[in-house]
Amino acid sequence: MDWALRFHGVGNASAVELGSPMATIERDGAPWLTIDCGSEGLTAYLARYGEPPRALFVTHTHLDHVSGFERLFVSAYFDPARRGRMPVYVPAPVLPLLHQRVGDYPNVLAEGGANFWDAFRVIPVGAAFWHEGVRLETFAVRHHWPGTAFGLRLPGSLVWSGDTRPIPDLLARHAAEGELVAHDCALRGNPSHSGIDDLEREYPPELLERCVLYHYAGAADGEALRARGRRVAVPDQAFALRAPSAGLPA
Ligand SMILES: [Zn+2]
Question: Is the pTM of this model over 0.85?
Fold first, then answer.
């Protein structure tokens, strides 16, 4: 079984030409679990696969990560084969924020008769959850208010940092099996996001080697990060993953 991570967007909230930060874990070349759903990211997703995401994990509710939800609602609600079927895994503390940001519009259909979440199968998750027989883990990261942004781990395979400041202590625990680490990183950090100086100061070389950087400010910044010897993702790029280490069905 082949596993890969495909980036749909790699830019920060202002770098729309790079797409909103979003990626899909692929299994045997097919989309398996998509991480976040911003507007530009969703457009890139549809261009790549020609169909809406099959399953979603939501890291946090900044709009560059969830603004594609309204389009997903329309496409899922009006398709009887898909209405209410798409799993949307949401860390439980994020769920009220997700509802406030995308679900709480009065009378989602002008003609009435529908609730926003009728279109999806929302699954609040804790520290671990199962998707199609495979176990994944979540962990709170450091992005704005505590407990509002989460990373995702496919043990032995992938850690997706989500938007975060450096988290060396958390990655020592949650990326301890040689996972590829897709990490928020710009040329310059700020109170919301990691910069390359931050990561090079706080992460051991072995961990930096495993990082693929995304969430940067523009193509020139991507080149500058590459010139420092770092792996930097571009839109639609895929990275091979090792098979998950645990939780696979027999
Ligand atoms: Zn954010």
Answer: yes
